[in-house]
Amino acid sequence: MRLGPSGLIEVVCPFDAVTWAQLRALRPRGRWLPRRRCWEFPLEAAAGLERQLRGRFPATPELERWLRWLRQPLPPLPPHRQLVEAAELEHPLPDGRRLFAHQRAAARWLLARRGAVLADPMGLGKTLTALAAARAMVRAADCRLVVLAPAGLHRHWRAEAASLALVAELCSWARIPSELPEAGCVLIVDEAHFAQTIHAARTQAFLRLARHPRLRAIWLLTGTPMKNGRPAQLFPLLAAIGHPLAVDQRAFEERYCQGHWREQGGRRVWSCQGAERLEELQRLLRPLLLHRSKDRCLDLPPKLRRLHPVQLEAAQARGFEHRLQERLEDYRRRVRRGEVRRDAEVLALFTALRQIASDHKLPAAAALVASLLTQGESVVVFTAFVATARRLQAHFGGDAKALLLTGAVPAGRRQALVDRFQAGAMPLLIATYGTAGLGYTLHRARHVLLIERPWTPGDAEQAEDRCHRIGMEGPLTCHWLQLGGADQLVDALIEDKADRISRVLQRGDPSFDRQALPQRVRQMLERW
Q1: Is residue 288 domain-shared with residue 414, that is, in the same domain?
Q2: Which of 5, 225, 461, 486 has an alpha carbon within 20 to 30 A of 425's alpha carbon?
């Protein structure tokens, strides 16, 4: 018997009719994993496994340690009322700030749950809310505080923890620890949507931590628990908090993700990328997933969106078509050499279309940004392409005139660039979605320019809400540049996926388009 990569018990044994019958009879049920050649059981089956197999199947030292902890559980937590009193939510913080009413309500909600997802939109202060609740656990239950967050946000978490006189043990998604303090701890997971692919090694390590016997409570923070509008992305988060829906992954996918077998390349593969019964899913998630809209929690200035159509002159249009044709011919040459898949031509062409369109939108983006800077405004520009960001920065005079925040900037320097922008040292920040679209506060900006939109509505919303948050002093205007069918298609996808997400996180029954992305791209290219 051994501990699996996701914190479940694995039993490795050759086929034996008697032993396999005993394993099938155990409750909670286990399942046979053909690829790993072993049985897999939840930790709740540990006592039954020990009774059945103890004398015949030795346990690895790591599993033996977990089993010992399961036999000697930590003392029960204080009652909810005592935890709320220890949180001192009505008192001013050591640095003089006070929690907002919605933060106090969320902290009380967290303290009533050992596993929960706080899915408020960006800008409502989830970090401080979770730390205020964790402070009560540290005081009343003698817990340690562990925070799992992207490395670039560690400085922010350390500062916020210090403002509550807390000491947090910080770890990153790149290096998830395998063990937790033996004395017990509360685990706060920031940007929990990083674990939305169930078979990824990072997700497996995260689930192992979430199932640790010395874990007192686990609270997941994410403004986008279903980034791409697919319920399948919720499953790892539900498994981490111990939601009953996560007991049977296949049943969950069949009921809510249109799970089915299909033929692909001459073999059967399992597909679960759809969405159905979303109103039922919303009702079942409500007890352990808290999502509130900004307008219900705060009296923030409005967020406005403006669409800016970009028109190309005849010579520019011919150059656009020439570049696209070159990319298509290059792709087909690579197909003939066996370097890429033949059936991915439509999506490859669509990606090329977006990249070339991003280049052709640079003059319009530069003109709009220059106009706003002349008016004395602070501006944040987001793009999906590093090359576009660099060219735009060079247009405005390089590092001396514009800050550039991309993945090439070391994680330790990113917050310093954000601080310079927030302090007013530089009125223009140009960033990629993957780098600046997570975790940072940029509310000094009154204007956000999205040169193109990312595939998922969660990323587009996160980028805008870096600026639309507590502390902003006026309305935020979001400028969307739109050139041709590619941008129109992505914007339509964002709207459809946002409708799916709203059906799971909020009440309501908006409609959405079920058409697959390749089909929609093919139709767009035919019209173009």
Answers
A1: no
A2: 461
